[in-house]
Structure formats: structure tokens, C-alpha cells
Recover the amino acids of this structure.
């Protein structure tokens, strides 16, 4: 099974297309095209019509997609409760599993459960979720996912307050690493486009979910090479300088 790795100096900016905007009737073809385009992660949005209003896909679809790609599958759980689906998605081939702290009373236990299942673990912060939810779990985290839209739908506009929030989370991660902690990826999700990804990178993100930006800009052959490379190029050209 492929394993994910934190951003490296040779590839410091990872592009994670979200299947939410894919053609679900051709999902295998779509994810193979993303892999051929050089996407770094496959972002897999799971919605339950309870924690968020929309309803998407579950572990069976993850297991169906798994043999079509070698890139890591980054499962974003927008569900409550989370326990059962953590185990089911790990069995279905997920490599990274993130959940929202509001979705469970047992954040620490479920972060541990994700790693026990052999996956990387992450917490997702909604636009209004305060950063103190990170306070006692930094050692349990491989990734922090900041929402720059309210979860539930693709194609929404980037919420500007996510930029100063990103800077604060980047400072927390840097302090954690400076104190001897392991690196933590910082992923941003919602409204990421060619024209704002450089500013998002500058604010401290290293992993970029993009749904409508990718699937709305296919190459003439139906592939996604140009848009994936363009997004990565814009993210990489701005060096962080806080
Ligand atoms: C929203 C999802 C996102 C969404 C991003 O709840 O978590 O991953 O698909 O889509 P865009 O890039 O279109 O905002
Ligand atoms: Zn997502």
C-alpha cells in the first residue's frame, strides 16, 4: 500500500485534487487522470447529510478507487460519529484520515485510533473553530486541515480570514517542530484557485485541496496536467517569509 510522506524540500507543495468535483460516473478514469497529471494526494470528501448537509461517498467507493491509483488517499471525514468510519476507511485503503473535532467527544482517542489503523492522522478546523482544539494533541497529528469554506459543498469562495488563521497555525507547527516535535503537514481546503494559491502558500500552507479549480479546467484530452502543474508552480514560486 502506498504511504504518504510530509512535504520534502524537493516537493514542498502538494496538490490534492478533491474528487467532489469529478464526474462520478467515470470515477476510475478521473482518478487515473489525476495520477497521470502528477497530483500528490487524492482528497476524498466524505459527507453524511448529518454533520454537513450534503451526502457523498463511503468506504466502498474508496476501496473501488484504491487499485486505480498509487498516490495516497486523503480521507476528509465530514461525518458524526467518526469511530466506525475511521476503521472502515483504513480497511478501504485510506492513507490519511482527518476528522472535525466537533464530530466527536473523543478527539484524542480517535486520533490515536487512526494511527493504530496504520494511517496518518489529522484534525480539520472549520472557519470558526478556535485553534485551542490543537492544544493537547500536537503529538498525535500528522496533518492539520484548515477549512477556507464551510464544509459541505465544492465551488465556494475562499474565506479571507483563513489567511491570518493559516499564519497562526504555521507558527504553532514551527514552534512544535522547534521544540523537537515531528513535522505536521498544513493543508488548506476550499476555494483554492490559480489566482490565490500563491498567497495561501505564503501564509503557510504546504498541501492544497482543489476541487472545482482542477475539474473545471481539463486539458483538451480530458486530462488535468496543465492545471495541476500550474497550481503547483504558483504555490512554489512564493517562498514563505514570515
Ligand atoms: C468542502 C470539501 C472540499 C471541496 C473543495 O466541504 O471539503 O474538499 O471539495 O472544493 P473547491 O476546491 O471547489 O472549493
Ligand atoms: Zn475536503
Amino acid at each position: 500500500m502506498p504511504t504518504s510522506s510530509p512535504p520534502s524540500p524537493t516537493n514542498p507543495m502538494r496538490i490534492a485534487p478533491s474528487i467532489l468535483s469529478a464526474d462520478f460516473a467515470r470515477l476510475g478514469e478521473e482518478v487515473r487522470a489525476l495520477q497521470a497529471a502528477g497530483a500528490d494526494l487524492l482528497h476524498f470528501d466524505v459527507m453524511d447529510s448529518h454533520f454537513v448537509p450534503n451526502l457523498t461517498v463511503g468506504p466502498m467507493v474508496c476501496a473501488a478507487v484504491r487499485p486505480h491509483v498509487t498516490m495516497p488517499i486523503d480521507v476528509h471525514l465530514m461525518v458524526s460519529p467518526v469511530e466506525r468510519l475511521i476503521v472502515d476507511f483504513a480497511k478501504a485503503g485510506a492513507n490519511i484520515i482527518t476528522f472535525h473535532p466537533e464530530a466527536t467527544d473523543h478527539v484524542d482517542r480517535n486520533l490515536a485510533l487512526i494511527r493504530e489503523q496504520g494511517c496518518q492522522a489529522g484534525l480539520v478546523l472549520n472557519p470558526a473553530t478556535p485553534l485551542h482544539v490543537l492544544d493537547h494533541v500536537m503529538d498525535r497529528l500528522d496533518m492539520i486541515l484548515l477549512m477556507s469554506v464551510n464544509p459541505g459543498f465544492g465551488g465556494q469562495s475562499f474565506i479571507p480570514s483563513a489567511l491570518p488563521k493559516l499564519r497562526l497555525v504555521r507558527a504553532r507547527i514551527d514552534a512544535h517542530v522547534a521544540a523537537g516535535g515531528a513535522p505536521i503537514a498544513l493543508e488548506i481546503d476550499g476555494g483554492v484557485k490559480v489566482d490565490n494559491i500563491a498567497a495561501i502558500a505564503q501564509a503557510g500552507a504546504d498541501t492544497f485541496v482543489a476541487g472545482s479549480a482542477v475539474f473545471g479546467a481539463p486539458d483538451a484530452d480530458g486530462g488535468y496536467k496543465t492545471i495541476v502543474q500550474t497550481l503547483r508552480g504558483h504555490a512554489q514560486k512564493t517562498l514563505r517569509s514570515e
